[in-house]
């Protein structure tokens, strides 16, 4: 099945400057978001984590004519400061950014949550959650009223998902941060929202034990009886970055084919 209702060039982001972080390869949700932003008229900047991703992400940046391209490792605060300075010099101001950053060690996902170490916890929360706060503090000063910050979360923040472990806790903290950041930045007219995406085959999904079963469960237990596409998440990001969502902030917007609203298994086969 092909992704429905994607690739529409609406011009919703015409003239806006949008930074998209966390691009790893062509399967990344962040890549779909960057591509959708360009299609809708935005000037886009893209970041990747380190040199291991540089060549493949550089070719993607070239495909969409990204204005900015560089490294952002949020374990190093200097990277955030350096990025802010570059945006300030090359763009002057920022209209929005997409935080697509998350990390937890594989054994902290597959193992028991009760067994994780302080080091595993601190690393996961630093990358997945605190990085949003740190970036919001740094980059909001470059944003005018109407600016928008969007992050990515998942259903594992709400319910226990086998194989998701520490990431579920980190995403729950991320969602709480969205609300508190929305309160702090609301007085300056900046909005902060999250997209809770259904499971999608990405490079990070490969770290989740039983991900294939997760996909099948989501397909069979969602209201639309299917999984979602990265392009559909990207469409939601365009909306949240645009002026169409001018009164929406502190929101966790689900793009999961209705899985979060399903209370029990369907009682018939399809």
Strand residue content: 5-15%
Q: In percent, how helical is the residue content?
A: 40-55%
What's the main sheet like? 7 strands, parallel
- The CATH architecture comes to 3-Layer(aba) Sandwich
The sequence of SSEs as H and E is: EHEHEHEHHEHEHHE
How widely separated are the two ends?
Answer: 16 Å
Question: So what's the overall shape?
Answer: globular
CA gyration radius, whole angstroms: 18 Å
Describe what you observe in this structure.
This protein is of the alpha/beta class. It has one domain: NAD(P)-binding Rossmann-like Domain (Rossmann fold, 3-Layer(aba) Sandwich). About 40% of the residues lie in helices and about 15% in strands. The chain contains eight helices and seven strands; from the N terminus they run E-H-E-H-E-H-E-H-H-E-H-E-H-H-E. The chain has a seven-stranded parallel beta sheet with strand order 3-2-1-4-5-6-7, sandwiched between helices. Helix 1 crosses helix 8, helix 3 (about 75-90) packs parallel to helix 5 (about 120-140) and helix 5 runs parallel beside helix 6. The chain starts with 16 loop residues before the first strand and ends in a 15-residue tail after the last strand.
Topology:
Blueprint: E1 17-20, H1 29-39, E2 43-48, H2 51-64, E3 68-71, H3 77-90, E4 96-99, H4 106-110, H5 118-139, E5 148-153, H6 165-186, E6 191-197, H7 211-221, H8 230-241, E7 252-255
Helix pairs in contact: 1-8, 3-5, 5-6
């Amino acid at each position: 099945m092909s992704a429905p209702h994607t690739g529409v060039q609406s011009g919703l982001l015409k003239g806006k400057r949008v930074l998209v972080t966390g691009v790893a390869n062509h399967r990344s949700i962040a890549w779909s978001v960057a591509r959708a932003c360009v299609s809708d008229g935005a000037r886009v900047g893209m970041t990747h984590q380190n040199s291991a991703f540089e060549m493949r992400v550089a070719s993607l940046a070239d495909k969409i004519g990204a204005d900015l391209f560089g490294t952002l490792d949020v374990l190093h605060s200097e990277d955030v400061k350096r990025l802010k300075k570059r945006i300030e010099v090359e763009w002057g101001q920022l209209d929005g950014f997409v935080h697509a950053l998350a990390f937890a060690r594989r054994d902290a996902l597959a193992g028991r949550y009760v067994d994780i170490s302080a080091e595993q916890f601190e690393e996961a929360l630093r990358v997945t959650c605190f990085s949003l706060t740190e970036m919001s503090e740094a980059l909001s000063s470059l944003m005018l009223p109407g600016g928008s910050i969007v992050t990515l979360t998942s259903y594992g923040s709400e319910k226990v998902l086998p194989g998701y472990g520490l990431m579920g806790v980190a995403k729950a903290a991320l969602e709480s941060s969205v609300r508190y950041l929305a309160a702090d930045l609301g007085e300056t007219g900046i909005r902060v929202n999250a997209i809770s995406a259904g499971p999608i085959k990405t490079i990070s999904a490969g770290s989740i034990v039983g991900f294939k079963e997760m996909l099948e469960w989501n397909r069979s237990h969602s209201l639309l009886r299917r999984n979602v596409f990265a392009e559909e998440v990207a469409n939601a990001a365009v909306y949240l970055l645009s002026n169409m969502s001018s009164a929406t902030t502190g929101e966790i917007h689900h793009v999961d084919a209705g899985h979060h609203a399903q209370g029990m298994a369907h009682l018939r086969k399809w």
